[in-house]
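Retro notes, item 3 of 5
We never archived the inputs for the glutamine complex last cycle. Fixing that now. Sequence and ligand:
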Amino acid sequence: MKPDHLPPARPDLAEILAQVHDHVRPLIGQGKVASYIPRLASVPIDRFGMAIATLDGELFATGDADELFSIQSISKVFTLTLALEALGGDLWKRVGREPSGNPFNSLVQLERERGIPRNPLINAGAHVIADVILSSSATAREDLLGFVRDRADNPAIIMDEDVAQSERDAGFRNCALVNFIRSFHNLDNDVERVLDFYFHQCALQMNCMDLARAFLYLANRGVCQRSGVPVIKADRARRINALMMTCGTYDASGEFAFRVGLPAKSGVGGGIVAVVPNAMSVVVWSPGLDDKGNSLAGAAALERFSELTGFSVF
Ligand code: GLN
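Structure as it came back at the time:
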């Protein structure tokens, strides 16, 4: 007989999602939508969706899990994957691997650190990553879209042109960052091309279920869960998870590791993706952001999820 102090092999994930949703109900609608990108300012703040995809092929969802949203900085994980495949370890000559401790769109460290961004998951790092991808392919944007569609197993995924244009119109900080990096010779392509690619990656539109499926390769040592084909080498998948843990929620990454203890990546569209290594990916979306640009109800939901399941890398 099994001793009764042992947890079940896997908790009832549908029940866990229902409990998490109930727990965060009072927080849904709190915080602020990302109004600095005008097209995102009109997203209804009262939305909440959550989805889990497991390595045994199951999918669980609650709330607005099938509603499309702008994945924004979550895309930085996909582009990092492509850039690592393109450049291998040489990538780390051009971008660091330390948490920045600064807001995602900050310029201050770049001056002191001579145009080498702290990590690939802040905006400056993502611009260098975009440059690497542009140098390695003449069809960079199509490659990224194809990669994301394959990962999510959904050929209908698009980049929302209105969001990309809206970001371009208001993208003064990103323009400054790209030009600044260029002045330190850490960018090979034309600044407009880098910005165009970056704004389009941020404008990828997906729902919680798409994203949950799309992130399974990082829970599965780099291997596609559906086909069994490697997407990225196991040691690179491990490194991407490490970077998500230390840098994925910007200057809240320490707090996030403390509260949730899972590799995660957030975006100002209100999405957060978390990886439970060797088990599942968990995605939450709620557009109200805290002052660091992370979904307020989303972070609370992931914290509750890890409390209820005991899933954490620690
Ligand atoms: N597109 C956003 C920006 O560049 C992405 C930031 C984010 O999601 N944290 O400002």
